[in-house]
Amino acid sequence: MGKIFYIMGKSSSGKDTIYRKLQESENLKLGRLVLYTTRPIRDGEKEGQEYHFVDEAKYFEFDKAEKVIEARTYQTVYGPWTYFTADDGQVDLENADYLGIGTLESYVKMREYYGKENVCPVYIEVEDGERLARALKRERSQEIPRYEEMCRRFLADQEDFSEEKIAAAGITRKFQNVDLEECVEEIAEYIRQA
């Protein structure tokens, strides 16, 4: 039986970069679990890589067909953005392991849907000051920086990833992303052992 290794952590903790590096690892051979979002695509992102970028009508189509595993809607400064995981045929745990990325809340729902033994947490941590510096650098590189949304996300993470919620989700191991290559290798070893 395969497993889903689920990367999560506060914004700007390096999740996307770590995800890409683990996906590129030929010896891990992890399938890609791509979530959906109604938010606009950022500069440098590609459809089907970071997310499937869809409109609200597509979300409601999945929801009506009872294919939504988990969904979260954030009231951003640009209006509501929904992120969701759909049972769209991407996952075949009988034949493969997968790498996913999401929030603590989505991890809990994925574990409920696929079974606790089949979804393994990969929680990434970075010191808050460093995360804020990374977030600011990323926004400055965008054609249209969204500083207000960056600040909203940073503050919301304090509640969404509280130590109480992390403990309630059963997460005991955390990976420190101080040195990217060391962090990726530590996670890769964790995956190999699982």
Walkthrough of the structure:
The chain is an alpha/beta fold. It is 40% helix and 24% strand. A five-stranded parallel sheet has the order 2-7-1-8-9, with helices on both faces. The longest helix is centred in the last third of the chain and has 14 residues, at 147-160. It is globular and about 45 Å long. The mean pLDDT is 94.
Largest sheet: 5 strands, parallel
Cα-atom Rg, whole angstroms?
A: 16 Å
What is the number of beta strands? 9
Distance between the termini: 12 Å
The helix fraction, in percent, is 25-40%
Average predicted local confidence, pLDDT: 94
Count up the helices.
7
Beta-strand portion reads 15-25%
Q: Structural class, from helix and strand content?
A: alpha/beta
The side-by-side strand order for the widest beta sheet comes to 2-7-1-8-9
Shape annotation: globular
- Which spans of ≥5 residues are poorly predicted at pLDDT below 50? none
Quick structural summary:
With 194 residues, this protein is an alpha/beta fold. It has helices at residues 15-24, 56-64, 104-114, 128-140, 147-160, 163-168, 180-193; strands spanning 4-9, 30-32, 36-37, 52-53, 68-76, 79-86, 97-102, 119-125, 174-176. A hairpin with a 2-residue loop joins strand 5 (68-76) and strand 6 (79-86).
